[in-house]
């Protein structure tokens, strides 16, 4: 896993893209406000669940799984909100469609990168299993093979992943396109944009933490106005996570992920013991370390499997939402832009 070279680099090359919607203009009814407040209350509850009781829970695979699950739920809530607002796609402003499609394709790219890294880490599990198998013998030759497998694991885990290395630029592009479209005449549109704002903040935060955990090279700080009811909870969560990331980056650890660090600690402890095993006392010590490595390896494998399922689930949520929007646009013969985020030439879809 690459070392942090630019851990403090900002993801805001274009300034803060999260600008609060203007309070002026169309008045939002009490009924619409009630819908919005319920949505934001759910968002805040998820942020609270992500706030760990101990900093040791941060950057664990279980925390990352919970964070990805929160993204799935929040993006599904947006779909539900659109239904509650009775705001069909053909009534959407063209700019909203552009923003949604632009963001969704970047999120799909991030999911692909994260899945690629999780697959790479899972592949390292085979090397650990091979090492554990050889450590079950008392043969010096088998110990040598175990050391070779452990060396291979460390080299494999420490190697770079080109797809993960591109996450920083994808997030930069994502942030550059997150300017909230101004809504002048639609109260329902204002509610939708404010709800989407909250989900965007959560999404960028979680994805930036994943990028930091996998690459050791990026993190970000989002400034959210206190006008949002969930802002204090988000700020507390972000400060806690970012501080722990900073501490781990500066400590020189092999990895910032808890489960990987646990395996690495057992591997480091094994090496000197394997070299000098000559009596029953040393054999007993070796057996204990091997057992601990086995437990750490199993926990890592299970954590990777669960997180992979959540990332795949989020990919499907984004993909189905995108497909549903495009299907609605086709059935309504709505004008959208070809080459999202670039060429502004329009195309009729029918």
Automatic annotation (TrEMBL):
User: What membrane topology does the UniProt entry give?
Assistant: Single-pass membrane protein
Q: Name one Pfam family in it.
A: ROH1-like
In terms of superkingdom, the source organism counts as: Eukaryota
Location comes to: Membrane
User: Membrane spanning segments where?
Assistant: 191-214
Keyword Mitochondrion in the entry? The reply is no
The cellular component terms of Gene Ontology attached to this UniProt record, alphabetical and capped at eight, are: membrane
Q: Which UniProt keywords apply?
A: Membrane, Transmembrane, Transmembrane helix
Q: Which family does it belong to?
A: Belongs to the ROH1 family.
Q: What is this protein called?
A: Uncharacterized protein
């Amino acid at each position: 896993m690459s070392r942090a070279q630019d851990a403090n680099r900002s993801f805001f090359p274009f300034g803060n893209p999260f600008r609060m919607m203007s309070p002026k203009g169309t008045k939002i009814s009490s009924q619409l406000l009630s819908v919005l407040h319920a949505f934001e209350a759910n968002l805040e509850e998820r942020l609270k669940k992500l706030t760990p009781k101990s900093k040791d829970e941060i950057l664990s695979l279980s925390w990352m799984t919970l964070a990805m699950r929160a993204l799935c739920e929040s993006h599904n809530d947006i779909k539900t909100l659109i239904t509650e607002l009775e705001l069909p796609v053909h009534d959407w402003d063209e700019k909203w469609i552009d923003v949604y499609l632009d963001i969704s394709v970047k999120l799909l790219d991030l999911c692909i990168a994260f899945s690629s890294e999780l697959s790479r880490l899972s592949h390292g599990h085979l090397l650990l299993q091979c090492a554990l198998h050889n450590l079950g013998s008392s043969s010096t030759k088998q110990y040598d093979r175990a050391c070779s497998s452990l060396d291979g694991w460390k080299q494999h885990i420490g190697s770079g992943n080109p797809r993960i290395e591109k996450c920083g630029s994808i997030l930069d592009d994502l942030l550059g396109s997150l300017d909230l479209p101004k809504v002048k005449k639609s109260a329902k549109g204002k509610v939708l944009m404010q709800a989407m704002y909250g989900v965007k903040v959560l999404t960028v935060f979680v994805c930036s933490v994943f990028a930091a955990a996998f690459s050791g090279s990026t993190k970000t700080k989002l400034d959210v106005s206190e006008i949002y009811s969930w802002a204090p909870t988000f700020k507390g969560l972000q400060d806690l996570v970012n501080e722990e990331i900073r501490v781990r980056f500066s400590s020189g650890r092999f990895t910032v992920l808890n489960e990987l660090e646990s395996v690495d600690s057992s591997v480091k402890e094994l090496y000197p013991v394997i070299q000098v095993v000559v009596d029953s006392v040393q054999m007993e010590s070796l057996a204990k370390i091997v057992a601990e490595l086995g437990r750490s390896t199993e926990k890592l494998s299970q954590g990777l499997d669960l997180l992979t399922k959540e990332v795949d689930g989020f990919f499907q949520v984004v993909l189905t939402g995108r497909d549903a929007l495009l299907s609605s646009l086709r059935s309504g013969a709505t004008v959208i832009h070809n080459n999202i985020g670039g060429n502004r030439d329009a195309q009729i879809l029918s």
